[in-house]
User: Which sequence fits this backbone?
């Protein structure tokens, strides 16, 4: 394995980890709102969150490109306010991974919240606990395994992200080339052997993540 | 306890709960068949559901008065709630379940972990996980947990409904001990005439979301021929 390969793997793990960290609080918050509350526009938000699951990733990438590009509403704001450029940088890789893995986190964590008997939370309230204490001492511990499983699923999805990433971040070696993009690039250039090496690493990481996630899901289910 | 419900309206889909009554007693039964609205009424008293209108007071304490926008949150109502499925916290030990809502001794003289555990005979299981307990043991832990929060009012939602007859006979004396030893007013939901006669001094009869009447249990059930057990029969199991 070359230094370039290590850089690609490092960039992939780093951006996938960062995107998972960024979406975690929003994903958990939204999952709780969807599982426990009724509010106007809930169906619309549910649909929007699920869109990246069913839309072609390249189409999601195109939307991101229009939003985050220099002339897009978010991209222009970030550039004018913070001087930050997003597209075709590692930040665009993180953004693409975050958007594509967000539905995995929300759906898994929402299920974990929905599996908790609401009467446990009701009884805790009558025992004198504030809503915040109920969430911290009853809801979170009981949903913890589902949350962990959802986080690992999201991370694994981010590791394999390709379609949106290539459109919004491109393939700039040392800057935006993640494993999936490097494999595609190697195949295009006829470097099949190198592509298979990266494929092996990619499969190993995905296998470990899914094994870990399934282990915690079963552990949670057997509780 | 004086229990006052005025102009209560709670709509849940096509079901409408309506109540307007005033009664008093140490243990007030809420009797009716499934779907009568007993659990909904209890949840309104606990503050877990907010009706469109209504006023609820226990003695002089107003728990809710929608006309003046007063609605005490469940944690401020001072009620101990035992739902039908008990809702014991599965990730906590028996001891941690019991102390979850326990107030300091200064606030609740006479109600402390040692005393309640002794009365309900749960000392040997304090450090066990909830999943290790039998049905009857879980029942007693749920009673103890509600008691240890030093409630002004205990709300019991068919606590014996899921138990077989033999286990019911074993648990009834514990409920009597709670009634007689701790003297905390209780709203006791049941669809069993035997339990109501055994434990309650007043009873509210409900059907289809309406409170039909309130009276002494004897006045309602003495003509019943469907009772398999006569009053007092539970005492023979002591």
Assistant:
């Amino acid at each position: 394995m070359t230094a370039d390969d290590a850089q690609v793997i490092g960039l992939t793990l780093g951006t996938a980890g960062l995107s998972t960290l960024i979406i975690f609080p929003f994903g958990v918050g939204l999952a709780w709102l969807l599982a426990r509350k009724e509010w106007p526009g809930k169906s619309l938000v549910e649909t929007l969150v699920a869109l990246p699951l069913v839309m072609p990733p390249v189409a999601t990438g195109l939307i991101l490109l229009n939003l985050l590009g220099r002339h897009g509403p978010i991209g222009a704001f970030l550039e004018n306010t913070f001087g930050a450029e997003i597209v075709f940088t590692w930040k665009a890789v993180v953004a693409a991974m975050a958007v594509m893995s967000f539905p995995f986190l929300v759906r898994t964590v929402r299920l974990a919240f929905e599996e908790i008997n609401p009467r446990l939370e009701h009884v805790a309230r009558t025992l004198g606990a504030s809503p915040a204490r109920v969430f911290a001492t009853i809801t979170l511990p009981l949903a913890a395994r589902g949350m962990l499983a959802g986080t690992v699923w999201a991370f694994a999805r981010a590791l394999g992200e390709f379609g949106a990433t290539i459109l919004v971040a491109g393939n700039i070696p040392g800057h935006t080339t993640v494993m999936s993009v490097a494999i595609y690039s190697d195949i295009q250039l006829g470097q099949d052997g190198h592509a298979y090496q990266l494929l092996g690493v990619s499969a190993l990481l995905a296998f470990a993540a899914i094994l870990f996630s399934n282990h915690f899901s079963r552990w949670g289910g057997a509780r | 306890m004086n229990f006052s419900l005025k102009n209560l309206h709670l709509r849940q889909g096509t079901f409408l709960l309506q109540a307007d009554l005033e009664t008093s007693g140490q243990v007030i039964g809420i009797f009716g068949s499934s779907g009568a609205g007993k659990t909904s009424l209890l949840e309104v008293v606990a503050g877990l559901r907010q009706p469109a209108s209504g006023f609820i007071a226990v003695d002089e304490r107003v728990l809710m008065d929608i006309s003046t926008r007063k609605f005490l949150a469940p944690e401020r109502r001072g009620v101990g709630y035992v739902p039908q499925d008990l809702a014991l916290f599965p990730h906590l030990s028996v001891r941690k379940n019991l102390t979850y809502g326990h107030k300091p001794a200064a606030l609740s003289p006479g109600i402390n972990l040692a005393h309640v555990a002794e009365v309900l005979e749960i000392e040997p299981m304090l450090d066990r996980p909830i999943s290790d307990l039998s049905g009857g043991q879980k029942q007693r832990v749920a009673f103890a947990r509600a008691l240890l929060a030093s409630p002004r009012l205990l709300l019991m939602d068919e606590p014996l409904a899921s138990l077989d007859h033999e286990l019911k006979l074993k648990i009834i004396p514990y409920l009597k001990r709670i009634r007689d030893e701790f003297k905390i007013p209780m709203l006791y939901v049941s669809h069993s005439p035997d339990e109501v006669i055994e434990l309650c001094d007043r009873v509210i009869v409900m059907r289809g979301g309406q409170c039909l009447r309130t009276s002494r249990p004897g006045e309602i059930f003495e003509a019943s021929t469907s009772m398999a057990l006569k009053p007092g029969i539970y005492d023979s199991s002591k």
